[in-house]
Amino acid sequence: MAILHAEGIEKRYGARTVGPVSFMLAAGETGLVLGGSGSGKSTLLDLIHGTRRASAGAAVLHIGGWRRDLFNLSVPELVAARRAAIGYCTQFLPAIPGRTGLDLARQVAPSVAAEAVFERLALPPRIWNLPASSWSGGEKQRLNLALAALRRPPLLLLDEPFAALDRALHPVLRSFLTDLAEEGTALLIALHHAEDGLPAARTLVSLNQPAKG
Amino acid sequence: MTETFAYLDEDSKRAVRRTILKALAVPGYQVPFIAPEMPIAYGWGVGGMVVTASLLGADDRLKVTDHGSDETVNAVNIRAFFTRTAGIGTTTRTREATIVQVRQRVPEAELVERQVVVYQVPRPDPLRAFVDSAVEAARMHAHADYGRVYTRLFEEKTGSHGAVQPGYDYPVLVQGRYLMSPSPVPKRDNVRLNDCPAIQIFGAARERRLYALPPYTRVESIAFEDVPFDPGLPEDGRRCVVCGCGESHLDHLLLRDDGMSEWVCSDTECCAERADA
Amino acid sequence: MLELPPPLLTLDGVSHGPRTLHDASLSLYPGEVLCLVGKSGAGKSTLLRIAAGLLPPGKGRALLPGGVSLYELPEQVLVSLRRRRFGFVAQDAGDTLDMAASAAANIAQPLFDNGERHFGRALAAARRWFAALDLDAARLGDRPGVFSGGMRQRLQIARALVHGPEILFLDEPTNGLDTAAQARLLTLLSDLQRCTGVAMLLVTHDLRIARLIAHRVLVLEAGGVVEEAPPDRLIADPRHPAARDLVAAMI
């Protein structure tokens, strides 16, 4: 059964348009949103997460007996749905200056042992208790992913998760994501190149036409 | 112009007695009270004198003490005033007195049901020590909102500035309801207010308040559940140079040339009894 | 879990003064950090004070769970409810702290106001909250006047949380602090929020602060709520001109 049903999602700003886009994503499935720079991949994830408002369409999230269009939720409902069901790994680390990586993890998910997740992402223990702002780009990227995944959200949105990562670390990330998917998480990944994706991934959306203007 | 009995006119006395009845009906509550004029200045014991004047009858016997002593100028003058204006008898023996007007001490002698103790009070509201606004203090009394009193107590035990609670005028809680000033009596006297068979009336003319304790009222000194009230008894083995008593409240008499202090009982009646025995 | 619990507090069409606030509404949900942002004079602090039970609105109601209308309660009930269930952190520490009392007494006072009469328990709580706010135990006996601005704000927060309130109200708590002290205070606040589960209603003119700790943001402009959004959406996709101004002011 589909956990996320996107129906004619569209974002218009000025002369530019992203979409309309429609797809279904099931639990445990990995879906790809492909496209070049400026094609609107991040925008599409932002729309589903509610970081931006869609101009048209619907994104129906279906979890257990709960079935609602994310675009029609009140802000408190959206915040509750995000906290309970949606993880979003952007390319930006949302951190209070000075917080260590482990602090951030505890804040996001107090009851989860973050250390195990950090280890699986090959984050060296010596940096765990350093301010996250001092971590390298690749380390921040994996921390972002850890923070998004810690609470085991049924739906995980990932924006270019490989972008800041060393090639040598790609297998680590791939196996981490594969494990998540096998445990039932639905993954929606925005990517430049399909070959970076996971073996079981299915391309849902291709935003290949470069943005105009 | 002829003076009326006990100086005050009957209408004024009736007004004061009405205030007293109201105060007795709500133990510990400060009843607003405009004292009639007396031939002394506010702040010199008008509150006590007005209460005494309103209560005195021809058969009463009055005892007056100041700091426990029957012989201070104040005590002597007040006795003389009522002897002259009311023609009543006075006494220095508590058990013979029907009305005992005091200042700064609770009588040490046993009090009984037929008696009234009248206290002169300079500062009737314990909250005013740390609440600037009279309106706010009134609200706190009305709501029994006494948290700040305990904060103050807490502050004294924990603050590094060593705000020391004076050893007198230590607030009490009446029947678990109203916070009340015992008047500037030593802390140790607080226990004598509790469950007292006599009526106790507190008059504060300058501050325009009157409050009272009916017989056998529960009066507890403010304290934490886990830190009992400390009556502040001296522990230096001091004794009265007249009667030798070490348990009663002693006043400092003089500092001898050898650097030692001499002490004397503040309650002259009890001291004299002990000395005679 | 995806369903919203009932709000802890709802303001229903409140107005105040001729211009300060008009017809502003909000709901605060359990465990959330809700930020009120807006320029000076937008009505943020007035709305906060109304929500905190400190200022009766001219029109409208403040509702608690069960439909209890805050300002229709007898004063005594309102005061005791405020003391039990709310904590308030003011922009100026002098508004809530007793500068003549020790830090320990300042923290312990809400306990005594709520009926605590046990010295040992109150002292232990004061110590615990002193430590929780990163304050030096050796200074428990000091008066707030000798503390730094950041320490005074932390002292206020300790005092506002010591009795275990459901809602913590904060009026520009980081104002006047340097960047490092601001970050430290925000870190502490977000930690405390997580540990205690207390809901926070926080007023700030600085969207950066809202971005760091808010779950939800309300934008106020000229006495009305003009936009509601999660902080990421407000920053990425502001709709109202006032919201756009605030986003522009971040950079």
From TrEMBL, chain A:
Pfam families: ABC_tran
Keyword ATP-binding: yes
Record key words, sorted: ATP-binding, Nucleotide-binding
Domain annotation ABC transporter: ranges: 3-213
Record bears the keyword Ribosomal protein: no
GO molecular function annotations of the record: ATP binding; ATP hydrolysis activity
Organism domain of life: Bacteria
PROSITE patterns xref list: ABC_TRANSPORTER_2
Signal peptide bounds: none
Record's protein name: ABC transporter domain-containing protein
TrEMBL record, chain B:
Lineage, broadest ranks: Bacteria, Pseudomonadati, Pseudomonadota, Alphaproteobacteria, Hyphomicrobiales
Top-level taxon of origin: Bacteria
GO biological process: organic phosphonate catabolic process
Class of the enzyme per the UniProt entry, highest EC level: lyase
Catalytic activity: alpha-D-ribose 1-methylphosphonate 5-phosphate + AH2 + S-adenosyl-L-methionine = alpha-D-ribose 1,2-cyclic phosphate 5-phosphate + methane + 5'-deoxyadenosine + L-methionine + A + H(+)
Pfam families: PhnJ
Protein name (database record): Alpha-D-ribose 1-methylphosphonate 5-phosphate C-P lyase
Family named by the database record: Belongs to the PhnJ family.
From TrEMBL, chain C:
Record GO terms (molecular function): ATP binding; ATP hydrolysis activity
Taxonomic superkingdom: Bacteria
Entry annotated with the keyword Nucleotide-binding: yes
Pfam families named among the record's database cross-references: ABC_tran
Positions of the ABC transporter domain: 2-247
Any one Gene Ontology BP term: organic phosphonate catabolic process
Claim: ATP-binding is one of the keywords in the record: yes
InterPro entries in the cross-refs: AAA+_ATPase (IPR003593), ABC_transporter-like_ATP-bd (IPR003439), ABC_transporter-like_CS (IPR017871), P-loop_NTPase (IPR027417), PhnK (IPR012700)
Record SUPFAM superfamilies: P-loop containing nucleoside triphosphate hydrolases
Swiss-Prot/TrEMBL keywords: ATP-binding, Nucleotide-binding
Family: Belongs to the ABC transporter superfamily.
Protein name as it appears in the record: ABC transporter domain-containing protein
